[in-house]
Amino acid sequence: MCRKVLAILVAIIAIFTGLIWYNVYLPVSPKFKGDEKLIPILFGVNRLLGQIFGDKLGLSKKYEVYRSFFSIITETDWLFTSETKAGVTIEDSVISGVPVKIFRPVDKEGEDSLHPALIYFHGGGLAMGSVNWTCYVQLCIMFAKDTKSVVISVEYRLLPEHPFPTQFDDGYLVVNTVVNEPSKYGIIKDKVALAGDSAGGLLTAAISNEFAKQNRSSNLVGQILIYPWLQIIDILCLPSYHQNKQGFQMDEKETAYFMSLVAMGSDKMYQEYIVGNVTKYFTKTQYQKYLQIPKTCDVLTENTNENINLPSEFVSMVTDPRLSPLLEENLEGCPATMLVIPEYDILASEAFLYSKRLEEAGVPVSTKIYKACHAFLFLLPIPYVNTTIARQGMNDMVNFLNSVFYT
Q: Is 325:230 a contact under the CB 8 Å cutoff?
């Protein structure tokens, strides 16, 4: 009980601190109204704490501060009433050595039927996040209830303690095990879909691509990419990075930090991202055809003839399609795809590019655009806030899954 009260107090203090800080130093974009400001504020507070305790005081690694902040305010069981959980059983388990949380719809008394399955990958820049975060527990409960499917949320290992491709390997191992032994988990054969948000969307796309390359398209019936992070090359020139970097919860500095952390396990490449050297380098490679970075970008119009050298291990890592699915050469055979794209998200451009490439590859694609920000589904479990757009997004995803599961 004391832990719950403490979590509530910390959350309240964080929110009010965020309101003061944002209104004094960095007002939220006027595109957000009322409760819509809550997510940018929470991300802003998190960023502020990372700067203070990580960058300035050096008391902890920045990613460790981020993890602690979100763990405190999101791992809160008190938000889930018996009514919320009604109709679903929740079990912590392990699949092929990887921890998972399994949400299973309750069958009618006496029944022991098989169900479709949704395998979910949480977000967090591959460096934070957990199946125990309230937002993900809420999402998985709703998916399990509304689609009558077994939802398996994957607790993949995190960066930088576990360098990439550990996250991909953990996710692929779970998916491969489930599709090979579906009845063991109460799942209908060849009725498995994948979903993930942000960095979890990256893993979802990469695993689906891997199945397609292995000519195993029939094993997956669909995928949902929720505000997905699909490339770790450009942070300056793609239109949405330029348009949505002020007054939103993510900016080029924070994105550069996570990109460097993912690629190198540290902030070693942070400055190369910030000054535009990474963008300049890759606009002169074969990957430009996938990125479609506008040549009019300010970064490219200055000193474009300079010779830029980047570490070979860095170039190899960021062009690995398991980490940058947008750079996958061939997307044919991917499962039917739904993209959830917030209009006010720096990642929107790469999601649109990916949607177009999937369509060109003959993949059935449903692209849904919402007047919202990155991580807007986080609003779903928060009491007394306006969740109209988040619920619309949830309904759209449920309809998509029901269409691929049952028709």
A: yes
Closest to 226 measured CA to CA, from 143, 169, 160: 143
- What pTM did the predictor assign? 0.92
Query: Rounded CA gap, 46 and 311, in Å?
Result: 31
Those residues with Cβ within 8 angstroms of residue 62's Cβ, 6 or more apart along the chain or in another chain: 50, 51, 54, 55, 257
**Burial label, 76 (beta-carbon count in 10 A; 0-12, 13-18, 19+):** buried
Tokens (6 digits) for 360: 């060109």
| Amino acid in the structure at residue 366 | S
Name the percent of the chain in helix, strand, coil, to the closest 5. Answer: 50, 15, 35
Q: Both tokens of residue 351? A: 């999601």
HSE at residue 372, side-chain half, CA atoms within 13 A, is: 26
Nearest to 198 by CA among 222, 224, 178: 224
Contact 243, 367 (CB under 8 A): no
Relative to beta strand 365-373, strand 337-344 is: parallel
> Mapping DSSP to helix (H, G, I), strand (E, B) and coil, where does residue 207 land?
helix
| Arithmetic mean of pLDDT over the chain | 89
The residues that bridge with 365 in the sheet, in sequence order, are 337
Per-residue model confidence as pLDDT tens digits over 200-245: 999 999 999 999 999 998 999 999 999 999 999 999 999 999 888 7
CB 200 within 8 A of CB 167: no
Distance CA 201, CA 298 (A): 29
Strand, helix or coil for residue 27: coil
pLDDT band at 69 (very low <50, low <70, confident <90, very high): confident
Q: Shortest CA distance to 10 belongs to which of 65, 69, 60, 67?
A: 69
**Beta strand extents in 145-186 (DSSP E only):** 150-154
Cis peptide, bond prior to residue 325, ω within 30 of zero? no
Contacts of 104 (CB under 8 A, 6+ apart): 88, 89, 90, 91, 115, 144, 150, 151, 186
d(CA 72, CA 63): 14
Measured from the Cβ of residue 258, the count of other Cβ atoms closer than 10 Å reads 26
Q: Which residues make Cβ contacts (< 8 Å) with residue 381, sequence separation at least 6?
A: 79, 80, 134, 135, 137, 138
